[in-house]
Structure formats: structure tokens, C-alpha cells
Amino acid sequence: MSADLIAAASSAAARAHAPYSRFRVGAAIRAASGAVYAGCNIENAAYPQGWCAEPSAISAMVMAGETRIAEICVWADSARPCTPCGGCRQKLAEFAAADTPVISAGPAGERGRWTLGALLPEAFSLDGEA
Ligand code: THU
Q: What is the pTM of this model?
């Protein structure tokens, strides 16, 4: 059941620091232990220095001592369902398997569901090193 994850991502979006884009995003990760870690996007007056909600949530997870993602939800009140940006897909792939569910949600609840592998096929990995 993903209702708790969606609620955590929604609460995180309310904390977003997004005065420039006004696009508030929350991400919530259910880690292998079952614990949920959340984060928001944090923008900066020097625009490229801001970062997405997903790395904020990943940071909370790693600082709690966990390194495996079981499920992730990205929440935004947007016209189209918000999916992780390209860079965030790679960041998630560091800690999640290809079959990990990625949920997009908004004020009305779940809007879409994919696997990380569907969003990032042929992900880069150092396993491919010569
Ligand atoms: N954003 C996220 O937080 N996650 C994504 O996956 C997509 C984009 C943020 C970055 C920026 O603060 C705002 O949304 C507009 O791009």
C-alpha cells in the first residue's frame, strides 16, 4: 500500500524551497527496512545550484544508515504527472533495482506508476567496466 508514501511525499512538497520555479516537489522513499524518508526540492538564487526532491530524500535515507530503496513516490501539484528528471533517475538507480516501483502523485492521489527500469532502461553501471 502506497498511501503512507504519498502522504509523506505530499508533506515534503509543502516544505519545498522553490521561490524561482514555484514548482514544489516532494519525494518519499520506502527503504528496505520499511522506514520512509522524505525530501523536497531546494532552489538557489544561483539557479543551477538548486537540487531536486529525490536527492534530498536519498540523503535522509543514507544518513539514517540505509542504502536500498524498495519504493519511491514523487509528488507535485502539476498539470502532468511529475516523474523523476533524468539525473534523478540515475541517482535512484544507485540504490534501487530495475523492478523498483516509482509512483507519481498529486493532490488527487496516485497519477502514474512505473518501474525504475522502465524510466531508465540500460542504466549506466560500473559493472560494465572493462
Ligand atoms: N524537480 C524535482 O525536485 N524533481 C524532479 O524530478 C523534477 C524537477 C524540481 C527541480 C526544480 O526545483 C523544480 O522542480 C523545477 O524544475
A: 0.96
